[in-house]
Amino acid sequence: MAITSFVVFVCVALLGVNVWLALQARDEAIRQATLADMNLTRAIAQQMNSLFSETARILDTVAFELGRVDGDPIAVQHMQPMLVNYAAATEQLHSLSVMDAQGQRIVSSESTGNALANDSQRAYFTYHRDSLSLVRHVGKPYRSRVGNVWLIPVSRRLNDLDGQFTGVVLATIKVAHIQQLMAEYEIGQYGALSLSLSEGGLLTRRPFAESDMDKTVAGTAQFLLLQKHRSGTIEFVSPLDGVERVVSYQYLKNNPLFVTVALSKQELLQPWRTTTYVQTVWIVLLCSFVGLLGNKVVRLMRDRLRDENMLRIARNELTVTNAQLTHLAHHDGLTGLANRRYFDETLMQDFANARRTGRPMALIMVDVDHFKLYNDIYGHPAGDRCLQAVACSIASAVRQPHDFVARYGGEEIAVLLPETDTAGAVVVAEAICLTVANLQLPFVSSVLGHVSISAGVAAQVFPGPNAGADELLGAADRALYRAKRGGRNRVVTEFDPAVSAAL
To answer: What is the end-to-end Cα distance of the chain in Å, rounded?
Structure first.
């Protein structure tokens, strides 16, 4: 489970880091694109500002010359070569014209019939006629009467010495020339450049569409954002073609115009998408590899744990079996006490310990009185139950943890008492006899009317005259024989000259 959690954590961490890196890379891509977009916008705005400022200086020069001749018709006509020269020398100009207060062109750089046209209905003319301002005016594009080309009017009001309106001097800029300048900049397949009037009217746009020439962005939410600062960058969906773009804008320094450079958000993020796609594919492959490897490890660990668990179970079962076999090898199947073999081993060990430490040890041999007769009267099953009850009582009467109780043979039970002298052993033996008597096991042939026991006690104090455990065992057995011979139901010690009184 821990390995699975770790593998899941690693995969989630890798995917999380990938997402974080992708978002960081996206923000950086937009930041870099925005910076490049803003620099491009400033460059185009500077170029457009120079173009229109140059046109404005020509208008001011023509107006100054007109002021010198004071409206003399002959002198004005003599200015026609100057207008032709300015129009020919200035790449962006289509024509230069001067018109009187009625909108009639009185001199023009054009040699066609358009040179004597009347412009009284043109928007730029009515603007100057109704406005007292001498500031140059940039009007909305219109088609020329001859050639049907798109032109941007840049005009200036003319006044006499009394400040009365006397006409307009007009310069027309070729939209195609501005389009040619815009075409030099790399903006992508879905990018857009535009030059617009400060009030929102479009002068020209790349990509060029004649249907856009009479459009305006005035009043739109995007235009309200553009009016907040002289320059900046925003993101919005173009109201002209519906493409989502990152738009940088810059108002011209000396002219009532602004430039926008709009880069398609989809295009500028395309390199980021490609990089992110490749990176994500590798991360997913790596996570898949880690997942497969982790799954393999988990399976191996599960198999190992299963095998270890099976081995542990087998080991536990073997331990239990060994314990059971050891118990069976050391204990009597009927009474549950230690058997004769276990007794012999324990006797030798305790005797050796007593000899080494110099501390005493005692042995009590217990026999159920008239047990053969009990079996004859009540049967062997009842005799087995009787022997089990007696064994349990004797074991309960022995309370020290190092004392040892064993079935010596038949109805005889041996009790080993390490670090116990004769007096202490007698006390234990008497407690055993009393405990058995309290069982009140019925026995019709007993004088007492219940089952009783006899006990022989022997003790060894080191150093002593006896040299081995056999002597201790023989002494206890002799004491038991004396107890039985003396009338049973009593405790007799090894060195008692007479049989003790019945209990």
So the answer is: 70
**Active-site residue (options: 65, 186, 411, 430):** 411
Pairing of strands 231-237, 491-493: unpaired
Q: How far apart are CA 33 and CA 17, in angstroms?
A: 24
Q: Which helix (H) or strand (E) holds 492?
A: strand 491-493
Whether residue 12 has pLDDT greater than 50? yes
Two tokens, residue 143: 């088609």
Torsion of CA 433, 434, 437, 439, to 10 degrees: -110
Instruction: Reply yes or no on whether the pLDDT at 501 is more than 50.
Output: no
pLDDT of residue 283: 84
The 3-state DSSP class for residue 207 equals coil
Three-state SS for 83-132 is: HHHHHHHCCCEEEEEEEECCCEEEEECCCCHHHHCECCCCHHHHHHHHCC
Instruction: Dig out the tokens for 445 from the structure.
Output: 């042939």
Name the average pLDDT for the chain: 86
Q: Which two tokens stand for residue 483?
A: 């107890």
pLDDT higher than 80, residue 495: no
**Which string of DSSP letters, residue by residue, matches 347-363?**
HHHHHHHHHHHT--EEE
Instruction: Give the per-residue pLDDT at 468.
Output: 80
Tell me the three state secondary structure of residue 187.
coil
- 168 close to 124: Cβ distance less than 8 angstroms: yes
pLDDT, one tens digit per residue, over 156-189 is 999 988 889 999 999 999 999 999 999 999 888 8
pTM of the predicted model as reported, rounded to 2 decimal places: 0.57
CA dihedral 191, 193, 198, 201 (to 10 degrees): -80
* pLDDT tens track for 121-158: 898 999 999 988 888 899 999 988 888 899 999 999 99
**Residue 453: which of 503, 405, 410, 416 has the closest Cα?**
503
Would you call 411 a catalytic residue per the annotation? yes
Q: Residue 365 and residue 454: Cα distance in Å, rounded?
A: 8
Mark 296-333 as b/e (b = at least 16 C-beta within 10 Å).
eebeeeeeeeeeeeeeeeeeeeeeeeeeeeeeeebbbe
What is the tens place of the pLDDT at every residue in 215-226? 888 877 778 888
**Token output for 328:** 């069976």
C-alpha atoms less than 13 angstroms from C-alpha of 385 in its C-beta half-sphere: 7
Contacts of 52 (CB under 8 A, 6+ apart): 138, 154, 173, 252, 254, 255, 257
- Whether 171 and 55 have beta carbons less than 8 Å apart is answered as yes
pLDDT exceeds 60 at position 472: yes
Amino acid at 379: G
3-state secondary structure of 465: coil
Calculate the alpha carbon distances from 262 to 235, 243, 246 in Å.
9, 10, 5
The beta strands (E) that lie in 331-452 are given as 361-368, 404-409, 412-418
